[in-house]
Specification:
globular; two-stranded antiparallel sheet; two-stranded antiparallel ribbon; 2 helices; single chain; 2 domains; alpha+beta
Length: 122
Amino acid sequence: MDYLPPGRVVKVGDKRFPRWVVKDAENRYWAGDGQWSDEPSGAILFCRELDAAKQKNRYCLGGDPADTFTATVVVTVHPARWSTEELADFLARHREFFRGGPPGKEGLLLEIVPDTLRKTKP
């Protein structure tokens, strides 16, 4: 089988009731329990993007289910160049970093969740 990129989180619904689903490279929807659905009605809906990302990270990297860890990431920018909204938008577009790791330790995904962005006090 050729390499298929891991799943991705896709926003569905509208501004009042946003929901997220997980889709794979073949545009199938995550239906849970290792199952994929070709139909949107078979998808699991997530109320929070973070929950969908956790599910994607745990089951969509290929092979066995992955363990998920959280860490604090510090982002420092020049205040005159970035607004909080611009930074959140940028991080949303560039949120995933795949690292190969040393031999035998491949498959590391670092993902920034822009919804958790908060300004710290100096």
